Amino acid sequence: MSLSKNQLKLITSLQQKKYRVKNGLFVAEGTKVVDEFLNSNFKLNHLFCVNEAVYGDVESITVITEVELKKISTLKTPNNVVALFQIPTEQEIKKEGFFVALDEINDPGNLGTIIRLCDWFGVDQLICSVNTVDCYNSKVVMASMGSLTRVSIVYTNLQAYLKETSLPKYATLMEGENVYKSELPKQAILVMGNEANGISDAVLKELNTSVSIPRFGNIQATESLNVATATAILLSEFKR
After folding, report:
1. Which of 33, 77, 158, 182 has its CA 20 to 30 A from that of 139?
2. Residue 175's pLDDT is what?
3. Which stretches of 14-98 are DSSP H helices?
4. Residue 3 and residue 68: Cα distance in Å, rounded?
5. Which residues in the chain land under pLDDT 50?
6. Cα separations in angstroms, 184 against 161, 233, 239, 240
7. Is 41 exposed, middle or buried (0-12, 13-18, 19+ CB in 10 A)?
C-alpha cells in the first residue's frame, strides 16, 4: 500500500491551524515523539512509516517509501514515521495548584520548550491566551518531545481568567523583585509574556506581584532573556 493523493493532501493541510481544527487532527513525526503519543491517552488516526516491523501491532498503518515520507515530513531529514492523532477535548482549568500562563507567545519552539519545562518541573497544566501559538502546530509538537502527552494545555481569555482566580499571580518584569530573594508560594500562577513586547497591559493590571531575574554580567548590556530560558530559571526557583 502506498500514500494516496487524498492522504497527502490531508497531511499537508494539517500544517495550517484551520485544517487541524476542521479535521480534529494533528501531525506528529519522528520515532521518539510518535512513540510517546502511542503510549499515551491520545488516539491514533493513522500512521505512515517506512518500516512496518517497528509498528507491526498498529492497526491503522500505511507502509510508505522514503520518497513518500519526504513529501509528508516537515523535517529536512525525515525520521522513519509520521502519524496523525486526534486532538483531544480541552480540559477545564484547575482551581488549585501551580500553573504557568502564557500571554501571546508566538514562537512554536518557545512553546514546545515551555511544555517540556512544565513536564520536567511537574506543572501539569499550561494556561495560554487565545492568541498564543497553537500547541498542535507541528513545530510545537516536535519541540515538546512528547511532553504534550503529560501537560494539559488550555486556551482562554487570559485577562478574564486572571481577574476571576484567587491564586497569587506573578508577573515577570525587568523591574520586579529579585526572584532569588523572594518568598515564593507553592500555589500560584506565573505569567510569561510575549517574546518582543512582554506581558500586555490588559493582563498586567490583573497581576499581584512581579519578579525578575537579575543580571550578573559586569557590563549588563543584555536586553532580556529568551522567554523559554526565563521560564526555566523561574520554575526552578518556584519549585526549589
Report:
1. 158
2. 87
3. 17-23, 31-38, 66-72
4. 7
5. none
6. 21, 13, 9, 9
7. exposed
